[in-house]
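Appendix B, example 12.
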Amino acid sequence: MIGTSLNDRFRLEEKIGSGGMSTVYRAFDPTLERWVAIKLMHRDISEDPDQLERFRREARAVARLSHPHVVTVIDFGEDDGTPYIVLEYVEGETLKERIKRMARLPVAEAVAYAIEIGRALSCAHAERLVHRDVKPQNVLIDMDGRAKVTDFGIARSLEAHGLTATGRVLGTTDYVAPEQALGKEVTEQSDVYSLGTVLFEMLTGEVPFKADSQVAVAMKHVREPMPDVQRRRPEVSASLAAVLEHATAKETANRYATADDVVHDLEEVLAIEVARSGESTGEATTVLRDLPGETADFAPARLRNPRRWLLTVLAVLLLAGGAVAYLATRTEKGAGTPAAPRSDGLTPVSLPTSAADDYDPQGDENESSEATQNAIDGNRTTNWDTESYETDFQSIGKDGVGLYVDAGSPISARRLDLTTPTPGFTSSVYAANEVPEDISGWEKVSRDTEVSETQRIDLDAGTQKFRYYLLWITDLGEQDKAEVQELALLR
């Protein structure tokens, strides 16, 4: 086929890929004087009506998608009975090739690519399309370092029936969701699982499961827990590990419901990770600039928009210089007060919004459970609160109520900080590695504290590490309830 032209227009120059249904060529379009990619259906299956319809459906489906991280469909046609799709030509490498070349990607870059892939999947899901074969081989990295998802060859409309019916497993088993491996209904949550598995490979340099056959690998996705990413790469944060665990949950009830949800948490993780390291490189820098406002606030302005930040700093320095010269003639030297308290070298634990949960073991086991994420969302205008109580806890048979956070893995937390609009309640901090049925199963790691509007509670667990940390409220003081605007765990 090299050197031939399709419909006297697209000249095939180089074979660049091949799959079960088609072969992909780099081709030149002399009419518009540009390079394109041609996906040419194999002759031996082009006469199969079902396969031909799948091929046509791919063209129609992807043509509806308009997104910077989806490879664009330009045209569809047939040449001498052989159908083909004309696609945007992406010069660069596949994500799989990049992983093989680098062994494993920098953490921030891996998160950035997962965000871009997730955004592409969100676009497809909005059009009622499930990709069904999310894998690094189907992600192209262009010359600017941007990820683009391609090969919707087995994509299926959520409203379609018949061609890829329940009971038929499609996809690459290295990344296949458990329900897909079992031939059950495939939904957008299946793409979320595959995205989480791709993220695991970007972080560790290898797929999570290996076996002698593809079927055996698929069964491991069904039966075996995902390997601990922090064991394979210790610098992965607890918050990122928690997002990965949530994305790759075996049961769909425990998995992110949508690609939008996982993208949101990954954006927060990226902003916090970059803020910690104080630098960003590669695609992480590009993604940082596109973060939504509420998430972008986690990352320093100098990293989100270096040029604007530099100009702002220069302006501030000029103004400050004038102010200092003026004040030098008007005031005497003083000791001064620092603008913000010292952090004593402690580092905040990055917590995804799903990391907080209520704790009411002696009541109805529901203490404003719908609002727990408000305590760790970085927004002081939202809060978690206890229920309203007309009397003290003891008179109704309660030792207290509380709110706990999941650090993702056992850590040595040193302090818990919180802000509240209802100061005066008494609380203490407990810790555990599994959530106990009652307070007696927790280990107390702080003194009882009457909480002020901005409170720091020192923790002392010795050399022990714990995954869960509970703010346990035992006395409401003069209030009928306690509210927590923001809660942070530091180590």
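The domain at 92-296 is CATH 1.10.510.10 (Transferase(Phosphotransferase); domain 1). The two ends are 62 Å apart (CA to CA).
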